[in-house]
Amino acid sequence: MYKFSINVLITIFLILGLMGCNNNKSQKDSTSQEITSEKGKTPKRDNKNQQNNLQNKNTKKILGNTPAKKITKKNKTNSSKIKLTPYPESIAVVVNKRYYMPANYVPKDLVYPNVPFLFKEKVEKRKMRSEAARALEKMFAAAKKDGIYLKGVSAYRSYKTQQALFNRYVKRDGYEKARTYSAVPGSSEHQTGLAIDVSGSSGKCAAASCFANTKEAAWLKKNSQKYGFIIRYPKGKESITGYKYEPWHLRYVGNISSNIQNRGITLEEYLRISGL
Ligand SMILES: [Zn+2]
């Protein structure tokens, strides 16, 4: 059943990704070109099939959501490319600079994972969706056995929190500058409840580029996929994900993690969609 839902989801993303490319014919889409040339053939578009997939009652039942149709953001850079991500509740949901989370989306199953964080308070950023939280506990325990002591830095962040933060930056630096260092509300993967920034127990280099040289980063890169996580923004994939290397930002994707991480690809490449 779960496997089936993932397959259906991948099909939908594939189709939506292709639609995205075709809606922006004038703009070069290096991601899809790269994927197309990798496979050596252009995937077929099949409108009838696409409709059938999106209207499939079973799909809606499994994913438990209605695909969002449009985004209300206007007068923003790249607004023509921005879409709401379909199936925000899915474990394999994609959120990036092109696919946004709905403003009113709050995961229904947020819990406090039983792992240490850099802070003691039971606050929003300590929460994750239950499946991801359980996997995180397993991963931290396995790391500990290998002598690697991990701590959480920041996990769930609501749209409202991101909006308040972003608005403060906009007031200070203006919209264009703010968006270079802070996620526009809706575009942060932390809103899914499936992402977490992780550090070593000292908190040194937490969410900073020097984390890349730590033993904790090396352990996560080697082992995180065994627990359903991926390093979401790998080195050298900025043109696809839209983000520089973030060895601390882990994303729970469930049982597709090994397929992604072992092949050295991104979630965008796996789903054959664009991040930019
Ligand atoms: Zn992060």
What's this model, at a glance?
The protein is α+β, with helices and mostly antiparallel strands and about 280 residues long. It has helices at about 1-25, 30-40, 45-55, 55-65, 130-145, 160-175, 175-180, 215-225, 240, 255-260, 265-270; strands at about 85, 100, 110, 130, 150-155, 195-200, 230-235, 245-250. The chain has a 4-stranded antiparallel β-sheet. Strands 1-2 form a two-stranded parallel sheet. Strands 3-4 form a two-stranded antiparallel ribbon.
Which features would summarize this protein structure in a list?
276 residues; alpha+beta; four-stranded antiparallel sheet; 11 helices; 40% helix; binds zinc ion
Helix/strand layout:
Layout: H1 2-23, H2 30-39, H3 47-55, H4 57-63, E1 83-84, E2 99-100, E3 110-111, E4 128-129, H5 130-145, E5 150-154, H6 159-173, H7 175-181, E6 195-200, H8 215-223, E7 229-233, H9 238-241, E8 246-252, H10 257-262, H11 267-271
Parallel strand pairs: 1-2
Antiparallel strand pairs: 3-4, 5-6, 6-8, 7-8
Helix pairs in contact: 6-7
Bound molecules: zinc ion.
CATH class: Alpha Beta
Percentage of helical residues? 25-40%
| Biggest sheet architecture | 4 strands, antiparallel
Q: Report the bound ligands by name, code or SMILES.
A: zinc ion
Strand content: 5-15%
Second CATH tier, the architecture: 2-Layer Sandwich
The end-to-end span amounts to 32 Å
Low-confidence stretches: 14-77
Report the mean per-residue pLDDT as an integer: 79
Number of domains: 1
Give the overall silhouette: globular
Q: Which structural class do you get from the secondary structure elements?
A: alpha+beta
Question: How many strand units?
Answer: 8
| Oligomeric category | single chain
Provide the CATH topology: Muramoyl-pentapeptide Carboxypeptidase, domain 2
Indicate the radius of gyration in whole angstroms. 18 Å
Major sheet strand order: 5-6-8-7
What pattern of helices and strands is seen along the backbone? HHHHEEEEHEHHEHEHEHH
